[in-house]
Amino acid sequence: MGELHERLPETAAYMHGPPPRKVVAARAKPLEGPPSVTDTPEPAKPHFRSDVTVELVKSDARDADVLFAARVSTAGEQSLEEVTKDPERSKGLINYLMRDRHGSPFEHNSMTFFVSAPIFVFREFMRHRVGWSYNEESGRYRELEPVFYVPGTSRKLVQQGRPGKYEFVQGTEEQYDVTTRAMEESYRASYEAYQEMLAKGVAREVARAVLPVGLFSSMYATCNARSLMHFLGLRTQHELAKVPSFPQREIEMVGEQMETHWQQLMPLTHAAFNKNGRVAP
Ligand SMILES: Cc1cc2nc3c(=O)[nH]c(=O)nc-3n(C[C@H](O)[C@H](O)[C@H](O)COP(=O)(O)OP(=O)(O)OC[C@H]3O[C@@H](n4cnc5c(N)ncnc54)[C@H](O)[C@@H]3O)c2cc1C
């Protein structure tokens, strides 16, 4: 975790790390007033989550940006107002670009998301190399919060069928119970080991080795509509998909929230994506 920050020069700013955008852990209440010599900081209590956070923190993304880029060579049509002036024509052009896979006009926009999700989701996410920029919180420069993933009851637990052709079905009550208990026990034990090492003065970058991939991390991820569509085509399951994909449910949960934000920003582009089988142009 935090590999991007690790490659940055260790300036004073990065030694302390940028402040986390959002406190995702339920931390112990801070002590009131100045600490006395007998006060010892309370260890943070593990916190378990079955959801993920996706926030759109900034964006410059409109359907008009696609038209603007596509019409650059057409005299007199370089206006961002075009989309409202003739919506049917705009819709038609966006659909044509999507259908014939003229992809570059979909790159002239930008969306930055704050994502908080388990590390195993981030491992999958960062395989998406093209058209994405990432900055993840550092486990070297600050103590990691004890926030861990435990699947909710709607998360199908049992895989049936052979590799490449399988489906997930609901677990029994017993399977949910054992999953919850085993995960929580294991998370508590690993976080205690982490705290023990930190208390003895072991560096954060060494102690973090005991923490599991179910630990939550956070990042900013910036993309454009084209790279987001490629991601959504691979990381969501959808009845309109021409090429079905079978992503892990937890990264799909991130993808679904990103799609909701994007759909509001670029409704015509989103509709054309669906109409053309959810294949990125
Ligand atoms: C359901 C599922 C299961 C998966 N299972 C595994 C697994 O078991 N093990 C595993 O390692 N990964 C796995 N992956 C990850 C997968 O192999 C891709 O790394 C990931 O989906 C990112 O896709 P991408 O390379 O197309 O995206 P990006 O890296 O964003 O690339 C976008 C596009 O750019 C082009 N491109 C990028 N880099 C190159 C390059 N070096 N050479 C040529 N063209 C390039 C390609 O056209 C590519 O589609 C899985 C992905 C999915 C969706």
- Work out the number of β strands: 8
CATH topology title of the domain at 42-151 and 213-275: Gyrase A, domain 2
> Largest sheet, order of strands side by side?
2-3-8-4
Spell the H/E element sequence.
Answer: HHEEHHHEHEEEEHHEHHH
- The averaged pLDDT comes out at 86
Under CATH at level 1, the class of the domain at 42-151 and 213-275 stands as: Alpha Beta
Bound molecules: flavin-adenine dinucleotide
Major sheet characteristics:
4 strands, antiparallel
Helix content: 25-40%
Q: What proportion strand? A: 15-25%
- Helical element count? 11
Extract low-pLDDT stretches.
1-37
Distance between the termini: 32 Å
Task: Please tell me how large the radius of gyration is.
Answer: 23 Å
Which shape, going by the Cα principal axes? globular
Structural class: alpha+beta
Architecture of the domain at 42-151 and 213-275 in CATH? 2-Layer Sandwich
Region (Disordered): 1-47
Binding site for FAD: 104, 127-129, 136, 224-226, 230
InterPro entries: Thymidylate_synthase_ThyX, Thymidylate_synthase_ThyX_sf
Subunit structure: Homotetramer.
Strand and helix map with partners:
Layout: H1 3-6, H2 12-16, E1 47-49, E2 53-60, H3 63-70, H4 82-85, H5 87-99, E3 110-118, H6 119-125, E4 132-136, E5 147-149, E6 158-162, E7 165-169, H7 173-199, H8 204-207, E8 216-223, H9 225-235, H10 249-265, H11 267-275
Parallel strand pairs: 1-5
Antiparallel strand pairs: 2-3, 3-8, 4-8, 6-7
Residues 127-130, 230, 234-235, 245-247 line the site of flavin-adenine dinucleotide.
